[in-house]
Amino acid sequence: MKKTFLHISLLLLLAGTAKAQEDVYPAKEYKGKLFITNGTIHVGNGQVIENGTIEVENGKIVRVGTDIAVPSGDVKVFNAQGKQVYPGLILPVTDLGLKEIANGVRGSNDYKELGDFNPSVRSIAAYNADSKITGTLRANGILLACVTPQGTVISGSSSVVQLDAWNFEDAAYKIDNGIHLDMPSFITRPNRFAIMMGMGREQGDAAKQALEKLESIKNFFREAKAYLGESSHKETNIKFLALQPLFEKKQKLFVHGDQVKQMMAAIDFVKEFGFEVVIVGGSESWQIAGLLQQNNIAVILNDEHALPSTEDDDVDQPYKTPYLLQKAGVLFALNDEHDESRYRNLPFNAGTAAAYGLTKEQALQAITLNAAKILGVADKTGSLEAGKDANIVISEGDILDMKTSLVTKAFIQGRDVSLQNKQTQLFERYKYKYGL
After folding, report:
1. Full-model pTM
2. Helical segments of 132-285, H only
3. Tag placement on the chain: N or C end, fewer CB within 10 Å?
4. pLDDT below 70 — which residues of the chain?
5. What residue stretches are annotated with the Amidohydrolase-related domain (predicted)?
6. Which conformational region is residue 299 in: left (phi greater than 0), alpha (psi within -120 to 50 degrees), or beta?
7. By three-state DSSP, how is residue 307 classified?
């Protein structure tokens, strides 16, 4: 009897603990009018409106300005007096929801498939809307993300999700917006352990292997193009069929690579296949910014808080690269792929770019409207303009400044979403324990 009682008590304790960590629910749809008043509104397109008002109806922005009257009656009003109002921030390339624990727990990871060519793999089907990480991103103003498969030559299609959902169907914002290709490296940079063991490879070998791999990738696309050009097929090839939206320009080709030679190879894809190409990584993109602009190639800079690519670069080159792309007229966005901080520092990457040449509004645009344009969702989000979804973040300080940023309210499609997450709950738990 005592043993049974102990078992029941233990189960109740575990259930209570689980509930304490799992009581953050997606917000319900809000039908009606919402007004956000008296705030400093950063529209996301470079415009700033002091003491402005945003009118929202049924999750859509209706008006933004300074002369909007708030009616009496059944409307919600949030007074943003003294606060900063921003569009929801967008994480443009991430394994969020596909990788929960980076190292050591394979069962929590579903971001990579076997084989080199996997265009039929769809990240949205594996996306985990219950990830513990999404709550920590919302707390820093990140409301949307482009979930991307990784790790193979053609890893599959990405999808844009909003970060307050019960499941992947609810989360889906734009499905299969692009195909992702890892460009082979033309140089070998062995890690320090390989160098110590004398395991470095000749760079000439790396370049030769890269050219051979590149030709096999082009042949794959050529075969797919020929297959799609046929009126009928004896056998169905799902990998080739998955590339049809890419050839029809309904998708973009996201080419992952940092080296100039990799980006030059991406330009060849534009010329041969007519793909709309986006460079992901692009740490050396500043060297050929004019060429990228001429070929209408956008860039997603992966991790600004990083060391320079080569020993000849300026030590602050990663911080200056956004300004150099802006100056050259290249459409670019900023990203955060840092595994340890799990992507929450995206706005502070933009803040660093603002300290090295960009204006504050240009830096904000790099994580809002620019990202939306690159991902193909600028018609719905990225700026606080009439007709777009009410994806809105309110902060007590500058959202790009790590010291003053404090997000106090967030709306996704007009829904007042929770900023609570496992970390804030643990903070409250131990504050209570120690009587603080």
Report:
1. 0.90
2. 133-138, 168-171, 192-196, 203-229, 238-241, 244-247, 260-273
3. N
4. 1-22, 103-105, 107, 189-204
5. 353-409
6. beta
7. coil
